From TrEMBL:
Quaternary structure (record): Heterotrimer of A, B and C subunits.
Lineage: Bacteria, Pseudomonadati, Acidobacteriota, Terriglobia, Terriglobales
Residue span, Amidase domain: 28-468
Name the UniProt record assigns to this protein: Glutamyl-tRNA(Gln) amidotransferase subunit A
EC number: 6.3.5.7
Reactions it catalyzes: L-glutamyl-tRNA(Gln) + L-glutamine + ATP + H2O = L-glutaminyl-tRNA(Gln) + L-glutamate + ADP + phosphate + H(+)
Single biological process term from Gene Ontology: translation
HAMAP family: GatA
NCBIfam families: gatA
GO molecular function, one term: ATP binding
Catalytic center residues: K82 (charge relay system), S157 (charge relay system), S181 (acyl-ester intermediate)
């Protein structure tokens, strides 16, 4: 049997190996499972390993290939699914004690589309509980550790997905992004992470956190792989009323582009206080590369960027308060065994089932929605959200794409920010704005810090213009190859 290291492959190379018969889907799946066995005990990136299921899927792929059937877009590709996305017959815990023993009865649309395209699901990824966090330290099942430095965080909330891709446990993973939860861990772990336009990918089967903000997206090691994955996942879904009928382009066909004549908007507010010097230097160097490719750098302003964190933590917590009301000990999930009254069942089940960060956000959101405070907080936050969306509309009148850092720092140390929620929240200062505005964004590697930690560049495009974002990202990737 061939010795396979998934870090040597992208999807195109894997498919070429299948066709040359130098590697089978079963061998690729076994390589993923072996890497998981070696690295997951230390990284804690996966909460469930689906060995038997994955090997069965891989065997079916090999049978298809032996029969001469054409390659599907993700044929035999080992992937990991974030554990807040349902996969029928497997645990979907959201990294919470309240769902520790919940088995999904159906599969999320985005995940079903990946499987229909031939993907082999090898595991479910750890995350911050209910996707609430920026470091993956809020999981009820322990933190995920950074694949390059076990003393550091991988970012959150999709830290398990990011670590799994970076460590070679899979070729790609799904994440979810409510305020940066795909892009920030992608930046920390040195991979590509995409938050699509709101409505581009169905949310059916994604356990809700903030329903007007949540999006499922791909996490990969290359821009081309991310474009391929999004092309499979995207599109209207009858099960999700917020999914869009907007046509899905062939992202791969349009990926290679000449950037001469492009205007790249540099967001001036993203280069102020709080930005790490190494991050700024790496992002500035990437911007110079775009100039060398023929693009023109244009300074643009998002004047309300400074209000984004406050705005986000009113809207997101309010929506979380409403969405998490369903976890009450009645229908599914954890029920406090000592409860003797209905009131005790509600109170004790939620007290014991939810972790500290989830409780904090439920309390904040309930307060913002309460009588007497709704207008002062939630209604005002929605007005600010409109201003932020208009900022982007005006900025895109001047340029094809916007660029800024993904995160203000490289990966920080475990425990460094857990006692200061505000500092933790500020880790998402450059990412939450995109969720509030509903526009797509991508993080891709653009350098390293003096300590060798990855740094991400964030590329932002207008709504439903992911093609531009992929073209810009691919151009940088190609220039640095």
């Amino acid at each position: 049997m061939n010795v396979v290291n998934l870090l040597d492959f992208d999807i195109d190379r894997l498919h070429a190996a299948f066709q040359a018969r130098t590697c089978s889907a079963t061998e690729a799946c076994q390589a993923a499972l072996e890497t998981i066995a070696q690295r997951n005990p230390d990284l804690n990136a996966l909460l469930s390993v689906l060995s038997d299921r994955a090997l069965q899927q891989a065997a079916e792929v090999d049978a298809r290939l032996a029969a001469g059937e054409p390659l599907r877009p993700l044929e035999g590709v080992p992937i990991v699914v974030k554990d807040n996305q349902c996969l029928a017959g497997t645990r979907t815990t959201c990294a919470s004690n309240i769902l520790a023993n919940y088995t999904a009865t159906y599969t999320a649309t985005a995940v079903a589309r990946l499987e229909a395209a031939g993907a082999v699901i090898v595991g479910k990824a750890n995350l911050d509980e209910f996707a609430m966090g920026s470091s993956n330290e809020n999981s009820a099942f322990g933190p995920v550790r950074h694949p390059l430095d076990a003393t550091r965080v991988p970012g959150g909330s999709s830290g398990g997905s990011a670590a799994a891709v970076a460590a070679g446990m899979c070729l790609a993973a799904t994440g979810s992004d409510t305020g940066g939860s795909i892009r920030q861990p992608a930046s920390f772990c040195g991979i590509v992470g995409v938050k699509p336009t709101y409505g581009r990918v169905s949310r059916y089967g994604l356990v809700a956190f903030g329903s007007s903000l949540d999006q499922i997206g791909p996490m990969t090691r290359t821009v081309r792989d991310a474009a391929r994955m999004l092309g499979v996942m995207a599109g209207y879904d009858v099960h999700d009323a917020t999914s869009s009928l907007h046509p899905v382009p062939d992202y791969l066909a349009e990926l290679e582009a000449d950037l001469r004549g492009w205007r790249v908007g540099v967001v001036q507010e993203a280069f102020g206080a709080g930005l790490d010097a190494d991050v700024e230097a790496a992002v500035r160097e990437a911007l110079k590369t775009y100039e060398s490719l023929g693009a023109t750098l244009v300074e643009v302003s998002l004047p309300h960027l400074g209000y984004a964190i406050a705005d986000y933590y009113i809207i997101a917590t309010a929506e979380a308060s409403a969405n998490l009301a369903r976890f009450d000990g009645v229908r599914y999930g954890y029920r406090a065994p000592e409860a003797t009254t209905v009131h005790d069942m509600y109170a004790l089940s939620r007290e014991q089932g939810f972790g500290p960060e989830v409780k904090r956000r439920i309390l904040l959101g309930t307060y913002a929605l309460s009588s007497g405070y709704y207008d002062a907080y939630y209604l005002k936050a929605q007005k600010v959200r409109t201003l932020l969306r208009r900022d982007f509309e005006r900025a895109f009148e001047q340029c094809e794409v916007l660029m800024m850092p993904t995160a203000p720092t490289p990966a920080f140390r475990l425990g460094e920010k857990t006692d200061d929620p505000l500092q933790m929240y500020l880790s998402d200062i450059y990412t939450v704005t995109l969720n509030l505005a509903g526009v797509p964004g991508m993080s891709l590697p653009c350098g390293t810090s003096r300590e060798g930690l990855p740094i991400g560049l964030q590329i932002v495009a207008p709504a439903f213009e992911e093609t531009r974002m992929f073209q810009a990202g691919r151009a940088l990737e190609r220039a640095r190859a």
